Amino acid sequence: MYQILTLNKISPSGLDHFDKTKYQYADDIQNPDAVMVRSASMHEMELPASLKAIARAGAGVNNIPVDACSEKGIVVFNTPGANANAVKEMVIAGLLLASRRVVPAIEWAQTLKGQGDQVGKLVEKGKSQFAGPEILGKKLGVVGLGAIGILVANAAAALGMEVYGYDPYLSVDAAWGLTSSIKHAKSLSEIFDVCDYITLHVPLTPETKGTINSESLATMKSGVRILNFARGDLIVDADMIAALESGKAAAYVTDFPSDALIGCKNVIAIPHLGASTPESEDNCASMAAQELIAYLERGEIKNSVNFPNVEMSRSGDHRICVIHRNMKAMLSQIANECSQAGNNIENMLNKSKGDYAYTILDVVGDMDAQLADKIAQIDGVINVRVI
């Protein structure tokens, strides 16, 4: 029976995917085959020898020691797109909040409590201080056209905005999902030069950290409005605050409050509500569970951040799953061990991702009890499973 450790409260919509005759899940499993996690940090956790996979019910994996997992042959999954609609809706709300000064207006209205019959007159007299532009016809730059960015771009276009999209890694499948009116920006500088609003939808990497800084802000239109529902460190807080104070930027809407940002004029700091919907939690949990089931039962990988996607229809009597380093002559050595054990390879698939690779072999014939151990002894092999 497969043992699943849950490190956070996981939606029943996800847990219900596990066949209770094959799986046991709880928050106190001692030797888990897999972990399901949302936001709990695993960086201080000792990774047990039994652990084969971790599924993050969400997109970001900052709370998981991915490098350590790769070295141990532990496949780390995330759930891209499962929370995309929830985040898209918050971004659209953010566009309106950035324009119409709704938040400070609401805060001001609260100060009128106790004014009795004068409230109506005070509202009419004071409302002009909160006037802001409509988004219709304005230019929006969408940086990153993944699952969320595409939905944001399409929704903004439907609201009448002129949308520019930038993503140097845009896939063909993703491109098919874009509304035809979306303009393809060839560089970030094009986005910065022409857009009235800019929204970020890229992962946090060493290359993307601090994408919005004093230098990039200097190239933007005066009065630019910036939205960040991706990761806080994509923007340098001090530089953003300086731009707001000088008037270079008119508003900053972020789902990642920091001590420096809270209380700053024209900063709308939202407490990370982007994916906080019951639908999103259900979708993420369901996708995470399905990813674990496919890997544990069939050896298939989809949406892994550290190993390649591998899917192969099953044939033969046994399936051998080998996680190994991306090295020359690895396949020939694995195939040779199978041949010497008397197992004919019916089908085989190998894919790599960076320094690591994954090989599935479907073999026919009685399985030599020592075959997995012999493959494991090959230099560069990290672990072997027989399903």
Number of structurally distinct domains: 3
- Poorly predicted runs are none
> What value does the Rg take, in angstroms?
26 Å
Q: What is the rounded distance between the termini?
A: 13 Å
- CATH architecture annotation name of the largest domain: 3-Layer(aba) Sandwich
Order the strands across the largest sheet as they lie in space: 8-7-6-9-10-11-12
Series of secondary-structure elements, N-terminal to C-terminal: EHEEEHEHHHEHEHEHEHEHEEHEHEEHE
What is the CATH homologous superfamily assignment of the largest domain? Answer: NAD(P)-binding Rossmann-like Domain
Please write the CATH class name of the largest domain: Alpha Beta
Overall pLDDT score: 96
Largest sheet: 7 strands, parallel
Number of helical regions = 13
Shape: elongated
Could you explain how this protein is built, in words?
With 387 residues, the chain is α/β, with parallel strands linked by helices. It folds into three domains: 1-83 and 278-307, NAD(P)-binding Rossmann-like Domain (Rossmann fold); 84-269, Rossmann fold (3-Layer(aba) Sandwich), CATH 3.40.50; 308-387, Alpha-Beta Plaits. The protein contains 13 helices and 16 strands. The strands form three sheets. A seven-stranded parallel beta sheet has the order 8-7-6-9-10-11-12, with helices on both faces. A five-stranded parallel beta sheet has the order 2-1-3-4-5. A hairpin with a 2-residue loop joins strand 14 (344-353) and strand 15. It is elongated, with a radius of gyration of 26 Å. The model has no long low-confidence stretch (mean pLDDT 96).
